[in-house]
Specification:
By secondary structure, this protein is of the alpha/beta class. Helix content is about 40%, strand content about 20%. It is built from eleven helices and 14 strands. The chain has a seven-stranded parallel sheet with strand order 3-2-1-4-5-6-11, with helices on both faces. A three-stranded mixed sheet has the order 12-9-14. Strands 7-10 form a two-stranded parallel sheet. The longest helix has 22 residues. It binds nicotinamide-adenine-dinucleotide and UDP-4-deoxy-4-formamido-beta-L-arabinopyranose. The site of UDP-4-deoxy-4-formamido-beta-L-arabinopyranose (WQD) has 19 residues, from helix 7 and strand 8.
Length: about 350
């Protein structure tokens, strides 16, 4: 079976390609490298000892997509390609709508034209908005999104649901990720953000290697035990393995389904700081800063549906996530540029 992985050079995509190759799938990566490096593709090959085809292409390039589908027999698509920065999406909403939504529509049109109607999509817990209480379940109504990035995920979910409703030959699996962190055990692939990281764990890792002076803890007056925000951090390898189960599902049957990929456990910002200090053996300097606009106090999953229907659940704990993030960062202080 052959799987096209859009955004396969990125953080979650690269880890998923490793697991796809390990599971015996032929894997083709499509990425425009706007937020990743081709070095990650080399390292996927190094880790697995298997070949992977790489095509530099934009998901908005219909002719480029048609060429890939005509030259390869593709059984299903895992669709990671997209822009993901919340603050950048507030500054450049049209770029986000064009890239994420326009790109997904073009991809689906190319898929339909090629007769490949099986897709696994990277959605996000952000679609639950701030109104639903945690643990978040897939049968809860989607919430009001607070930034253009989140809105792209909500709209793409609707577009894919409508696509299935109009044509039941499609097989769609919407995966709502919680907070992916960690890295492959080899320390050879991991998260490599451009500029100053917007997310907690890449920020902490850069404080730990001395690139950044201290962490700003965004709010300590939330209604949580220590006052800091609670999230459901999930190891990126567990997340990657969830995609293998989702691909099996779309290959095996038509339909449209939605799953949370989370651990079901919530940890605070200060829990993360402590766990990371243990993993790296250093103190993480931090200061309490104001709340970040758009943040919810508590966000964690109910992962029951994925366990029951996909046979998947996360097995890696917070200590392992921090150890693996630290191995990646300390072995590659400048990310893939080394
Ligand atoms: P990433 O930026 O590391 O990977 C995305 C990849 O897509 C990058 O390699 C980038 O170069 C590529 N890309 C972007 N636009 C493209 C386009 N128009 N054509 C071709 N390639 C393009 O991000 P990630 O953390 O691996 O996230 C993967 C997906 O998961 C994204 O869709 C993201 O929105 C979603 N997601 C991420 C998180 C998270 O916290 N990391 C949480 C929920 C959902
Ligand atoms: C986690 C916690 C912050 C940075 C984002 C997107 C979401 C999804 C995952 C893609 C919060 C606190 C953070 C810092 C801090 N992405 N924090 N200091 O906001 O839960 O989710 O990434 O879909 O859509 O919104 O993740 O890592 O940014 O924040 O105190 O410098 O860490 O306030 O409580 P978030 P995060």
């Amino acid at each position: 079976m052959s799987i096209l992985v859009t955004g396969g050079a990125g953080f979650i995509g690269s880890h998923t390609c490793v697991e796809l190759l390990n599971a015996g799938y032929d894997t083709i990566i499509l990425d425009n490298l706007c937020n990743s490096k081709s070095e990650s593709v080399k390292r996927i090959k190094e880790i697995t000892g298997k070949d992977v085809k790489f095509v530099k292409c934009d998901i908005r390039d219909r002719a480029g997509l048609d060429k890939i589908f005509s030259e390869n027999k593709i059984d299903a698509v895992i669709h990671f390609a997209g822009l993901k920065s919340v603050p950048q999406s507030c500054k450049e909403p049209l770029e986000y709508y064009d890239n994420n939504i326009g790109g997904t529509v073009t991809l689906c049109e190319a898929m339909a034209a090629a007769g490949c109607k099986k897709i696994v999509f990277s959605s996000s817990a952000t679609v639950y908005g701030s109104e639903n209480p945690s643990p978040l379940r897939e049968d809860m109504p989607e919430g009001k999104t607070t930034n253009p990035y989140g809105t792209t995920k909500l709209y793409i979910e609707r577009i894919l649901k409508d696509t299935y409703a109009a044509d039941n030959e499609w097989s769609v699996c919407l995966l709502r990720y919680f907070n992916p962190i960690g890295a492959h055990k080899s320390g050879r692939i991991g998260e490599d953000p451009n500029g100053i990281p917007a997310n907690l764990v890449p920020y902490i890792t850069q404080v730990a290697i001395g690139k950044l002076d201290h962490l700003n803890v965004c709010g300590n007056d939330y209604p949580t035990p220590d006052g800091t925000g609670i999230r459901d951090y999930i190891h990126v390898v567990d997340l990657a393995l969830g995609h293998i189960k989702a691909v099996e599902k779309v290959l095996g049957e038509t339909g449209c389904s939605t799953y949370n990929l989370g651990t079901g456990k919530g940890y605070s910002v200060l829990d993360l700081v402590k766990a990371f200090e243990k993993a790296c053996g250093k103190k993480i300097k931090y200061e309490i800063a104001p709340r970040r606009s758009g943040d919810v106090a508590i966000c964690y999953s109910d992962p029951t549906k994925a366990k029951q229907e996909l046979g998947w659940s996360a097995t890696r704990d917070l200590d392992e996530m921090c150890e693996d993030s630290w191995r990646w960062q300390s072995n590659n202080p400048n990310g893939f540029e080394d």
